[in-house]
Each structure stands twice: as structure tokens, then as C-alpha cells.
Amino acid sequence: MNVLRRFHFIRKPEVFRCVSSVSSCESVVAEPLEQRGLVRVAGEEVYGFLQGLMTNDISHVQSGISSMYSMFLNTRGRVIYDTIIYQSAEPGVLYIECDSSVTSSLSKHLKVYRLRKKVSIDVEDSYKVWSVYEPSINQNQHPINLVDDMRDHLLGKVLPCEELELSKKERKDGFSINSISSKNNVLIFRDPRISELGLRVVCPSSEDLTKSLGVGRGSSYRFLRYCLGVGEGVLDLPPDQCFPLEANCDYLHGVSFHKGCYIGQELTARVYHTGVVRKRLMPLLLDGSITESNALKQEVLNENNKAVGKVRGVEGLSALGVLRISEVLSAKSLTLCSTNVKTMRPSWWPKQAPKELESRDKQ
């Protein structure tokens, strides 16, 4: 059974390039991410305030990068919130995207450390997050990149043409390619993790991007993430139960090892410098349907009936698991709930193999 039957294929592996016409972007979809929410953090001391609480270096946002992936850890170095931080068009105002079930919890967490800093922290209910992506997958089973032409197309549809020209002019003058594009309270960002995840759009809750853009409404964003091996939210990253490097935070540009101290930094740095992360989130492709409730109760087994990982979520014929890297990649077969499954080393992982893979190859 073709695990990717929900997507169409192309014969050549070149990246899909979208031109300005609407007809050429028929495969692009917009999907409201109801499971994601926003916390608004603002004030003249907002950057310094967040610097000591998050894994990434907020100074990059302060100096011009408009979106950033980061995690908030507890004192034991475990993930409590996975987030994307957006710089709004207004200086000193940031939006922190997180799982919608923990927006209030994140807000309280930040307020605990605010002390006397001049920072306001509020759950933002008047805005919502959309994902705009190209769900096609090439013959190598890797989603096709959403290139800059698609971003320009979105600007031209959501924003007036003069705003598009201004954005191009700013980039020529040295602005980051992630520079903010904003009009009528619509903010467009490239997903800071990997390009295959497309764009993130923050807009008023009343806005319907499918009508604004003239594109279809997507329903396969979670399936796309699982095919890529990207976790998101409390289901994939249970609070206080996983470490940032196991969740590929380092591979997804979500942690800085040069910024200095932050909550949970000591353990994260120690694991990074040892160079050995034995388990990571990886994609699982299923040969048959499995209910998520059953999969979460079972472990992934190799041909010797040895447990080599656990499942975090199932969407259609794709799943996400925390797997022992060297063991699953060397296994002759893998099963989950008596169903054959396959995994792979995601294409967006660094080309240089982790030390545990290097040691395996020497055996």
C-alpha cells in the first residue's frame, strides 16, 4: 500500500517553482492551526527578559530575523513548551506561538520570572495562526520546497502590490529574507524550522486565508509534519517528558550553544558536547492503518522483538516516534501493533552523521 497515496507525485525531483499566476499555485493550501495559540509579550525590556528563559538567542530577532524556533525548558532540562517567536511590525512587540492548550500556562510561566521588568504578558485571542504549504511529495518521499516565488505570490494576494514592491526593495537594501511583511494586521513569515513546512501567517481571527488567497483549505499539515519527522505541541512533545535534542531542537535551528545561561541550559549543553543523542523523533511510514490510541500503548519492535522506540502520534499512514537511531536504521524489519513500518533518516538532518551512527559503521 502506498503510504503517500494522499499526495500527487512528479516525475522529476526538481523543486516546484510557483509563478505569480493563481493557476500555477493550485496545489498550495492554507490550513488554520486550531491547535496553536499565541501569547503577546511586549515592552522595552522584552528581549533581555526572554533571553534567559529560552533555548535560542533572541538577539537575532532583535537584530532583524523575524521568526525564530525555540523551546522553554524546566530546571531539569526537559521541554515544557515548544514555540515559534514572531517579531511583529511594532518594535518591542513579540508573539509567541505555542500549543493552544498551554497558552495560559506559558503566560503564567513567563510572569513568574518577570519580576520588575517592564514587560507585559497576555494571551492573544484576537489573532490565529495559519500554515500555507505545498503538500506535494517527490519520488524520494520528501515534500517539495516552498520557494521564494510562493512567498511573493502570497504577498501579492494578501497584501497590496505596493507592499510587495516595498518588501523586495527592503531585501535589496540588506533586510533578511525573513523580513516582516505586514498590512491590515496580517503577518507573513517563513517557517523558521525547515523550508518544507512552508509559511506561517498570523492574522486576525476573522480572516479566512483560503478566500483571501484563492487557494484550497488544507487538512494534511499534521500528516506532512509526521512524514518529515517534525514534532509540535504537547502530544508530540509531552511537557516534562522529553529533552530538546531528542526533539531535534538543534537540527531545527531552535537552540543556541553560544548565548550563555538559560533555564535548563546545563544539561542541554552537556548532552550536546558529548555528541551522543541516542534517541530522536523520526518519521514512521505504516503499511496499514493503526488507530492512534492503540499505537500509543505499544512499542516499535525490530526483527528480534526488541523495543526500539515509542510512538508519539499517528495521522493516516504516517506516524511520529521517538526511536533509537542506530538500532532502527540497522534493523531488517520494524513492526508496530503487528503492522510493518519503515523509518528513514530525514533529509533535513545534517549530513554529518551523529557519533552513534559513526560508531555503528565501524563495527
Characterise the protein shown here.
The chain has 363 residues and is α+β, with helices and mostly antiparallel strands. The protein has 2 domains: 27-136 and 180-277, 2-Layer Sandwich (Gyrase A, domain 2); 278-362, no CATH class. The protein is 25% helix and 27% strand. The chain has helices spanning 46-51, 59-62, 103-112, 148-158, 161-172, 209-213, 221-228, 233-236, 265-274, 292-297, 325-330, 355-362; strands at residues 29-32, 36-42, 67-73, 79-87, 93-99, 120-124, 127-133, 181-183, 186-190, 199-204, 216-217, 279-286, 299-302, 307-315, 318-324, 334-336, 339-343. Strands 8-9-10-7-1-11 form a 6-stranded mixed sheet. The protein has a 6-stranded antiparallel beta barrel with strand order 12-15-14-13-16-17. The chain has a 5-stranded antiparallel sheet with strand order 3-4-5-2-6. Strand 4 and strand 5 form a beta hairpin. The longest helix is centred in the middle third of the chain and has 12 residues, at 161-172. One of its GO terms (cellular component) is mitochondrial matrix.
The fraction of residues assigned to DSSP E strands is 25-35%
Counting structural domains, the number is 2
What is the CATH superfamily classification of the largest domain?
Answer: Probable tRNA modification gtpase trme, domain 1
Helical amount among residues, as a percent range?
A: 10-25%
The total of beta strands comes to 17
> How many DSSP helices?
12
Shape: globular
Rg to the nearest angstrom? Answer: 21 Å
Please give the CATH class of the largest domain.
Alpha Beta
- What is the end-to-end distance? 35 Å
Point out poorly predicted stretches: 1-25, 138-147, 160-179, 356-363
Remind me, CATH topology of the largest domain?
Answer: Gyrase A, domain 2
Provide the succession of SSEs. EEHHEEEHEEHHEEEHEHHHEHEEEHEEH
Secondary structural class: alpha+beta
Tell me what the CATH architecture of the largest domain is. 2-Layer Sandwich
Overall mean pLDDT: 82
State the major sheet.
6 strands, mixed
Q: Largest sheet, order of strands side by side?
A: 8-9-10-7-1-11
